[in-house]
Amino acid sequence: MTFSTGQAAGASPLPVDEDGKLTLTLTVNGRTERVTARAHHTILQVLRDELNLYGVREGCGVGMCGACTVLLDGKPVSGCLLLAPMAVGREITTIEGLETPDGELHVVQQSFVDHTGFQCSYCTPGFILATKALLEEKPDVTEDEARTYLAGNLCRCGSYVKIMDSVLDARDRLAAGTGPTTSGSDEQ
Amino acid sequence: MRGEGANDPAVKGRYSGMIDARQRVTGRIGYTIDLAFGGMLHAKLLRSTAAHARIRSIDVSRAREVPGVVAVLTGADLASRSDLQPYFGPVYRDQPILAIDKVRFVGDPVAAVAAVDLDAAREALALIDVEYEELPAVFTLDAALAEGAPLVHEGPPRTGETFADVIVKPQEGTNICNSFRLRKGDVEIGFAEADEIFEDVFTSPPVQHVPLETHACIASVVNGQITVWSSTQIPFVIRSQLAEIFRLPQSKVRVIIPTLGGGYGAKCYPKIEPVTAALSLVTRRPVRLHLTREEEFVTITKHGVRVRLKTALKKDGTIVARQSLCHFNTGAYADIGPRLIKNGGYGTAGPHRIPHVAVDSYAVYSNLPPAGAFRGYGISQAAWAYETQMDMIAERMGIDPLELRMKNLLDDGDTVMTGEPMEDSHFKELLADATNWIGWSPGAQPERNGSTVRAKGFSCIIKGTVTPSTSTAAAKLNEDGSLDVLTSSVEMGQGLLTALAILGGEPLGIDVDKVNVSTPDTDVTPYDQQSSSSRSTYAMGTAVQRAVREIRRKLFDHASEILEVSVDDLELDDGRVVVKGVPERSLGFGEIVRKSRSGNLVGEATYITEGGLDPETGQGIGSVHWHQAAAAAEVEVDTDTGKVTLLRYHAGVYAGRIINPVQAELQSVGNVAFGVGQALFEEMHFDNGQLQNGNLGDYMIASFEDLPRDLNVSVLEYLPADEIHGIGETGLPPVMPAIGNAIARATGVRIVDLPITPEKILRGLRELDARGSAAEEVASR
Q: What ipTM is given for this predicted complex?
């Protein structure tokens, strides 16, 4: 049995082992990872179960809530809808890939910390990754545009006001080139 | 959109944030689903496709043969074992771990599979053959209450240990699983004295909590010892129920709770822990069960409720009597329904001074998924009824709705519906703030602009917290002066760990960053009744402060010995124990721990609230204190499409003392987001018991686009009261009537059945039009 990936036509089929699993070479957070997965396994399952990247989380399983958001070549996608073989040859970024190696938070992460843009935080990695993509796409995004862009990410705790404060502050910090600060929350 | 709570000068300089923020933005906070153990199996449940049926046979033979499948369990397997009793439930033991003999709703677990991976478990599920013999089913309150209705449960209920405040009065031979009765004064006298009497019926549908983290549990049964890691709000009930099911001492059951990805009441009381533990028992391996979103929808819901209110008033608008009849559709299993009907029942009297009140409230079984605790705990359904009726009454009597409420709102010293005197009342202040902010003016007409029309509405509510209740805490002062706080309260995003770190550090002046607060582990952390009912910051916070004060006493005792001065001559100053007036004679906390050779200084404390209600009259102490909130909304309705836009919203809530300003604001906005959904679109649709919209493609929850652009949060603080009021739920019940009242004022269409959908508004507008043309026709004749 063989299985074709989402790569360009002509890519060679991948071999399947006795357990029905493919061996896939993925690029995750800049590292090359070799994993085994069945053809129907999603990137969400593989990232969690094979690579122990728990920042990507299932919320609805049907691509509606955004909790499983990962960046595929920099664009947000629902990890629960993306079959793992389709990610071969693409750059996958998860929340774990945002910190610098010495532990400095990404500007968007720091803004979420400073404004407490979360409660239970199950949705937070999805919001942060979507925000990162949004601000790269449109550095001068308005609040209205951000609301529409982020409407595909759901927060059942309803932390939306603080999430928007975080998003707009991250936009301003990136524009000012100030990068992360740890000056503490705006309430202090 | 900034909250006054956080901006108030009085709270500036306080800690405001979350102590585990960094773990939360890096994805490393660690939920139950992030745990894995060697040899761990994965479980799946086969669920009933019938709403009410006898199980004729279950054939699991083909499922057992699937490679990788380790065990397949049925209810019959469990019922035949002598080492367990297979029923659970926080009040009645009416819920089988897996269906025994019959199924009671579409989604009732019938069989369970444990396999080496989910693919094998899924394949096995598909190979289980169940033969059902369909029985007549009841879905609606009317059907369940009808004479001779099919019974969801036959025979006397299995009872067992339950909460101190629960009074059980089942009516055998009917579908009524419990009732609550309140009699204050004599409503007949009130009705006789009244000038006007209004009778109206209001309904709220079942909705789902939708925690983004669905229920998850890992169980490991080894050598007669059960360990479960579970996404639950209630560790000690899980422990006692597992001990009861598996016939073990409670000390042989260990419940560990990582942080939760949301709870909102869904994760109160046992749900999937019993079946996960049963699978581990038979396989002797750790077993993990994580529900899909579709399964979560049928695991627990908010109660669908019908409330009939009869309210009697004097000509001047003074309420003299209220009678309410409440029916809560509690679904196939009682869960906490038998207790919730009490709060939902007494709650219908509202924050009003009413001399004569009669309440009859019932929990009714049906063949729908079980209903249980849901943020607001019955008060949302009650407030929807009474705050909608208040506006209807104001309109009928020609009184301004604000004036009508102000005339009747409770003041200090008035008796609340459960008979105790009101203390620390802030209803009038909250409602005045809300109506001022929205710009309420009596008699103001809706603003029309083409097909859209705008208007304002408001509401004011009262909510109790579970009483009596018990919380215990321990604390350890370490040899470096840092502090460990041990409790079994559950962090589910409400910021409980941060609140307890702030409160725990306070008596000794220890910084939040030097305080560690445990998550629950029943082997180690002391008892807490439940993380629900907006009680934890107040009740556990009080216990933690008492525990740390005990440490302070010990510190002073040791310091007095070491420094050879009387305890009375010592004081605390900037993290040190100092001899009064002699600042150079002092000891650091860590120094005292080391010099006293204590290892650490341990304090422990218990906080118990007293109260409870008489089973016949519902009088006594309903709540240790009363939570209070008010709201105001401005909406725009498009009369061509029925679309409602919430333009502006004010959420006002009384907090007593604000512990963590940003969390107070977050919880308040969260209540608005929850309430907007329930006001305008959230509803579980059933067709013959089959849920039609049990996924997030068909069931909407509020997104960014649903919140008002202009949202004002006001967390009212009153420090002289020296009390903390929980605000986790308080701001939710006012949302639905505030929005409903604004819509009714804008359109003239009064919707009494939630949610207020565009279809209902358009139907109402058409009826108004038809009535208008009929009237014109009569006039022109």
A: 0.96
